[in-house]
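Researcher: For the annotation table, I need structure tokens for 2-dehydro-3-deoxygluconokinase. Please keep the output clean. Sequence:
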Amino acid sequence: MSKIVTFGEVLMRLSTPGFSRFEQARQLDVTYAGGEANVASALAYWGHHTAHVTRFPDSPIGRSAAQYLHFHGVDISNIIYGGPRMAVYFLETGAALRASQIVYDRVNSSLATIDPSELNWDEILKDANWFHWAGITPALSQGAADACLAGIEAARRKEITVSGDIFYRANLWKYGKKPSDVLPALTAGTDIVIANRENIKEIFGIDGNDFIESCVNLKKAFPQVSRVVDTKRTSISATHNLLRAYLWNGTSVLETPDIDINPIVDRVGGGDAFIAGLIHGLISFNDEQKALEFGVAASALKHTIEGDALISTVAEVEAIRQGETSGRIRR
């Protein structure tokens, strides 16, 4: 199978038990998560060689986070250690009319304080077929943004496919740069962009009358881009959503039917599962429509699993793609 390298911050996730509010909780459940690492772990369960690149504190917490990735089948040989602390996020899971809440605590984390020279991208990307990044990581610091750009540039030199999820967290950009200052250079070296009309306009100042025109105009500005992908979530309640996806391939837009997800167990990581499914589909199938449907099915399945990681087999995702959503017991 292909070797897929991902780069980004991994956080300690502290979540309230069940559907408890922060004010009610007297203990918190611990796991580890990060958007790009979630992509790597899902792909590892489907038989791909995945390697995640990040920086952890040289402490029992940092080593615990690395072992978590290793447990999920991710190659941790390119993780480096240093810096002051582990990034953390707190999660309160919503229900019915009450939305989930996330509180981040990631200032001065180990990855935020990285020196880009600590990473030898030519060695890291040896024998790789795919490199994936996301817009949250360059939001952390100039060092993290420069490290991400160096990874993309190395992938370009090696003619490795690059995918980038340019969705970002506006409140994370606190080092004097805006997304529009940083993300264009990263997108310039990216083949497959996960984006919608709104953030294409916000980040690049590129507009269009519809998704197709926005994609066409994005391609004019960034010729390397060959596909643009977006998902549409219809939220009926915090525990009941509909999910579909779109893919522009340079000539037309493909679209999936909605998948009805009810009840949702844990929606965090659903977008990462979609990206993992799309990458698997594009690598494994000679069929963009099937690849897109596999991505949506993977995302839907993730909504039924606690934690950020999608733990599944290809067969389970494929069954959902084919419409087997009854949830009947398998014997």
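Researcher: And a one-line annotation?
Model: The domain at 3-321 is CATH 3.40.1190.20 (UDP-N-acetylmuramoyl-L-alanine:D-glutamate ligase).
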